[in-house]
Specification:
2 strands; about 300 residues; disordered N terminus; flat; two-stranded parallel ribbon; 9 helices; mainly alpha
Length: about 300
């Protein structure tokens, strides 16, 4: 499949000559389509941050039920306190994600790009599923394992949105050998393992989302070294892949080095929050950093392809 970065005047009228259908459902990739792809990535990262703020401010049960905020109110109210506004604000952002995903599907539907349609459709279908997990999170009174699942489910959405941006913008891909493909896949798998270990570590820590919420009971001193070891493995994989690609394609290698920089930044923030005993502001930066790591490693996965894919 090929990407189309230009607009043919006869097929995609612009300005006053374009109908509403042409603007919402263009036949080629337009600046509107690209803006929607970026909006998809930004909104997926934003809802991770707002969800983290719900937990960090102990607002997880600010709305005690779902979909209503309380038994007597559909929305947050002054009587329910500031925590209800924080929690309900995070819920409302779900509708923004749905609108962006729906508009993105429309924007790529008539381009003939099935890969773009699949990515956009996946984003749309998983947002309601994520909302259902959010419901279970509230009804389970912030069970730490459900809270972890709520976070983990957002990570594929960030990755898919990142891939969508790459393909809409027509980011070049480098055809390479089997070893490099395996390394790129190991980068993705290791990133997933780091995220899972990180959520397990979080579930044993102090920021439960509510002062009365349960914890996993696991010893953070046991989970932390395992989480850290996976980060070192990821760094090693990126260095090896970057060096190997440097002899083949500078552009692809640059994508790997950028991902390495993001991972190193995230690792530094992780050590800072650990030694500062998890201050809220630093933990919030670490959470948004996790979405940056996912997006950056998704870029690595996109940057290389096997001869068969080509």
């Amino acid at each position: 499949m090929t990407s189309h970065s230009s607009i043919h005047p006869a097929r995609a009228p612009r300005g006053k000559d374009a109908t509403l259908l042409d603007r919402l459902m263009p036949r080629t990739l337009t600046p509107y389509t690209r803006r929607l792809a970026v909006a998809s990535l930004a909104s997926q990262m934003l809802i991770v941050l707002t969800g983290g703020l719900v937990r960090l401010t102990a607002s997880g049960l600010g709305c005690s039920t779902w979909p209503r905020c309380s038994a007597s109110s559909l929305t947050a109210t002054p009587e329910l306190g500031i925590h209800s506004y924080i929690e309900f604000g995070n819920r409302l952002l779900t509708f923004v994600l749905i609108v962006v995903a729906a508009l993105t599907i429309l924007a790529v539907w008539r381009t003939g790009r099935r890969d773009l349609c699949y990515l956009a459709l996946s984003l749309l279908l998983f947002v309601p599923f994520q909302a259902i997990v959010g419901m279970v999170t509230v009804l389970s009174h912030l069970n730490p394992w459900v809270v972890s699942a709520h976070f983990i489910i957002s990570m594929p959405l960030v990755a898919w949105a990142s891939l969508l941006c790459n393909r809409v913008y027509g980011t070049p891909r480098h055809t390479t050998g089997r070893t490099n493909i395996v390394l790129a896949r190991l980068v993705s798998l290791t990133t997933a393992a780091i995220l899972i270990a990180g959520t397990i570590l979080t579930g044993s820590g102090p920021h439960a989302g509510d002062h009365g919420a349960a914890r996993t009971g696991l010893d953070p001193q046991v989970v932390t070294p395992f989480h850290s070891a996976l980060i070192y493995i990821l760094i090693a994989l990126l260095v090896i892949l970057g060096v190997k690609l440097g002899h083949e394609d500078k552009r692809a290698a640059k994508t790997v080095w950028l991902a390495l920089g993001v991972v190193l930044f995230q690792g530094v923030i992780g050590y800072i929050q650990h030694f500062m005993h998890l201050p809220i502001a630093v933990v919030a930066v670490h959470m948004i950093g996790s979405t940056m790591v996912v997006a950056a490693t998704a870029n690595v996965a996109h940057a290389v392809r096997s001869p068969r894919e080509a």
